[in-house]
């Protein structure tokens, strides 16, 4: 792959750069959008790790921000990272003002109260629900929590290029769900030193996951099917989409 | 005044609508920008009120979000309010895509790590500083914490109208500082039932304020001088600026 994904950790920025490359755009035309979505994703991790949220002390192999500094710093750092994401999308290298407003609007919708934040709120609500979530409910939760931002990332290259984003949207929808299923499999079978974060938290909390609902083999099969579906949506791009196909395969093969 | 400021509580949205009116724009041309800055300001209050930040239980006469619901909800509600602010600035009623990108960029700079969040971080650092802040330090802190957003609000009308924002920028810089001095005076002399928030917190914590540094009378005089300065910057607009002059006078006369 041309850019290091770094485990699953830089997937969003990678998708921005790779989908831009699909339309012949050099990295400098898309790098601010890639940086923006990584800032947005990083803010969500810093806030999700807070004691009042998921209460995690380890992230990417490092102490989380509130452990290393303090909670007020983690709240403010997350807030400023979100702001920086939108500032980065104003970079003229991304294209016309119309293009940049489309990116701003898309990122806001993907990450706000009907996207990522909704997914996180549903996830927190699930912890105190009387019954574990069903497969439909958990699929909807994850479509918001991780899916919306992955979709924005994969569409960004087409938006910057002024091209039709529909095939990439379909690719990213399947990829996002495969990514989350792979995360649940890693949470069950992975190694904390490799992943750089605490594992088995959902299972220990009695929360439904794709693994608890489908079984380990069922979850693996579903992830494989989704990757095949994701690949099929890239057919219009022929060989130029090879890196995006590799990325989809990597998402379910990764160990971190 | 044409729009209710509601104590000092809706000052930012009011400034957007009134500066737009200065250039003959009807409220519907500016309302999304007014709503955006109110969302941005509300997010900052919800996060600032958290136990790990200012730990306030009363705001606008109501229990704060983490008291009424819980801390996770307050973090997420603040996050989503910030996102909504940027989504609102994509509204085509605000003007061309160039205009809207200018508003997005300006709001991001005003509210991010070199604006409002910096001011809040300096404020928190001041709590554990070995010596109280000097007048220069506290002026710089407030220029970020409250000044940057007030300035963006007053410039917004000119940006939407495609007019020179320099006089309004100068007006807002003086107004923002007067507003903060008036806040410090209210914190010393105000009534909790009227203001709808806890008072005397800074003095009780031994933190420097404009009142502790200038004395009550000195602070009042400084605020009056700043309001006169703010008014002088509106001279180019003649009588059409009457409401903005009234607003500046109200800022130091308010009791909430």
TrEMBL record, chains A, B:
Carries keyword Membrane? no
Do the record's keywords include Transferase?
Answer: yes
Q: What biological-process GO terms show up in the record?
A: carotenoid biosynthetic process; chlorophyll biosynthetic process; photosynthesis
Pfam short name (any one): polyprenyl_synt
Q: In which pathway does it act?
A: Isoprenoid biosynthesis; geranylgeranyl diphosphate biosynthesis; geranylgeranyl diphosphate from farnesyl diphosphate and isopentenyl diphosphate: step 1/1
Which reactions does this protein catalyse?
isopentenyl diphosphate + (2E,6E)-farnesyl diphosphate = (2E,6E,10E)-geranylgeranyl diphosphate + diphosphate
- Report the superkingdom from the record: Bacteria
GO-annotated cellular components: cytoplasm
The EC category is: transferase
Required cofactors, per record?
Mg(2+)
Q: Write the record's keywords in alphabetical order, separated by commas.
A: Carotenoid biosynthesis, Chlorophyll biosynthesis, Isoprene biosynthesis, Magnesium, Metal-binding, Photosynthesis, Transferase
Describe the family membership recorded for this protein in Swiss-Prot or TrEMBL.
Belongs to the FPP/GGPP synthase family.
- Tell me, in a sentence or two, what this protein's role is: Catalyzes the condensation of farnesyl diphosphate (FPP) and isopentenyl diphosphate (IPP) to yield geranylgeranyl diphosphate (GGPP) needed for biosynthesis of carotenoids and diterpenes.
Name the UniProt record assigns to this protein: Geranylgeranyl diphosphate synthase
């Amino acid at each position: 792959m041309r850019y290091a994904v770094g485990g699953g950790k830089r997937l969003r920025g990678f998708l921005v750069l790779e989908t831009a490359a699909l339309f012949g755009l050099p990295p400098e035309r898309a790098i601010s959008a890639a940086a923006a979505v990584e800032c947005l994703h990083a803010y969500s991790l810093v806030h999700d790790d807070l004691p009042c949220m998921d209460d995690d002390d380890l992230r990417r192999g490092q102490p989380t921000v509130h452990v290393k500094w303090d909670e007020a710093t983690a709240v403010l750092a997350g807030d400023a990272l979100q702001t920086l994401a939108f500032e980065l999308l104003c970079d003229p290298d991304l294209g016309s003002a119309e293009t940049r407003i489309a990116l701003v609007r898309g990122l806001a919708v993907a990450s706000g109260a009907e996207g990522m934040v909704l997914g996180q709120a549903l996830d927190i609500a699930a912890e105190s629900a009387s019954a574990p979530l069903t497969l439909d409910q958990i699929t909807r939760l994850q479509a918001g929590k991780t899916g919306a931002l992955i979709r924005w990332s994969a569409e960004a290259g087409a938006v910057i290029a002024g091209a039709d984003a529909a095939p990439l949207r379909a690719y990213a929808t399947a990829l996002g769900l495969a990514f989350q299923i792979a995360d649940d499999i890693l949470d069950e079978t992975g190694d904390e030193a490799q992943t750089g974060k605490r594992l088995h938290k959902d299972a220990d909390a009695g929360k439904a996951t794709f693994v608890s609902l489908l079984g380990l083999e069922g979850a693996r099969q579903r992830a494989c099917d989704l990757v095949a579906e994701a690949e099929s949506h890239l057919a219009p791009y022929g060989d130029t989409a090879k890196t995006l196909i590799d990325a989809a395969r990597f998402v379910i093969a990764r160990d971190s």
